[in-house]
Amino acid sequence: MRAKKTRNPSLVRYGAAAIVLLGIKIIDSLEVAYEKAGGQRRSVQVTIPSTHTFQKKPQTSHERTSLSVMTINIAHGRKDGAHQLFQKTNTIKANLNDVSRVLKRNKPDLVALQEADGSSAWSGNFDHVRYIARRAGYIHSVRGEHVKMKNTSYGTALLSMFSLKTPISVKFAPSPPTFSKGVVLSTIVIPGTPNRAIDVASLHLDFARKSVRETQVKEIIAKLKHRKNPLILMGDFNCEWTSRESTLHHLAEMLNLKAYRPYSKDIITYPKSGRRLDWILISREFEFVTHTTLEDTISDHLGVCAKIRIA
Questions:
Q1: Contacts 24+ apart (CB under 8 A), 15-21
Q2: What phi and psi values does residue 10 have, to the nearest 5 degrees?
Q3: Which of 43, 123, 141, 267 is least crowded, fewest Cβ atoms below 10 Å from its Cβ?
Q4: What is the pTM of this model?
């Protein structure tokens, strides 16, 4: 009898990955050809999300000269484990409890979250943003919904110790086969300086294609370039500050923002690939006092914290 041939698992994985990448390339080429032929991408969607206040806490009136901020992609509550669909609700809550503990320990005034779920069947059927906000002691939150399907809702979010004023959520133009991404933006007023308003935003860019990220960045610039307030833009940019891809550098240049040691090769925020994908960008009138990549495993991304001088 002939022995049965066994499939090499590695070859199967590589083959599947190659098929997915080929499909992405084909779709990307079709989109480019469509635009060149005079077609139009479906436009961005701008909505006004609801803010939530969890406790009444008097704000100090003394003038603030610095802010502490943090960004973290919370990966739908799965930490660095298997897909959230395969995790029990109690496990997801335990993972988010770890996120909350890190926030309580580091005490950032502002937090930008990505892959932040509303009530979704694949991640426990509860609002992850409100859950973290309550346990970490934040007063205000807002979540932009960039993906809305049956029993699934997620996007980017902000947690804040300051009131979040005039929030908007920008959902980028669809980019199949990857899901929509976007940015949520709000304005804070620093206590003791009533005339000093600062725009703060949590951003997530497409992970698969440079061409999609470039389009999304153009959409961000169009929405933000005419705003007068200084800006703190944080999030998962899914790209680096390199000559091979100028997406991030172009965004910073057009919005007059700067990053901490942008060309550094020793700052890694996505350990699986050894890349720096998570960034804090600030207006040029601000200064970085500190900038730290956290070592806590609360996601497949690492949290990034910074203290910013605003005087």
A1: none
A2: -65, -40
A3: 43
A4: 0.86
* Neighbouring-strand partners of residue 185: 168, 201
Position 24 pLDDT exceeds 80: no
The residues facing 178 across adjacent strands are 175
Which own/partner contact pairs does 267-272 have at CB distance under 8 Å and 24+ positions apart? 267/293, 268/293, 268/302, 269/293, 269/301, 269/302, 269/304, 270/300, 270/301, 270/302, 271/300, 271/302, 272/300
Tally Cβ neighbours within 10 Å of residue 165. 14
Give yes or no for a contact between 183 and 156, defined as CB atoms under 8 angstroms apart. yes
For 114-147, write each residue's pLDDT tens digit: 999 999 999 999 999 999 999 999 999 999 999 9
Block residue for tokens 């005087």:
311
Distance of alpha carbon 302 from alpha carbon 282, whole angstroms: 19
> Per-residue pLDDT for 57 more than 70?
no
**pLDDT above 90: percentage of residues in the chain:** 74
User: CA 230, CA 161: separation in Å to the nearest integer?
Assistant: 18
Pairing of strands 231-236, 110-117: unpaired
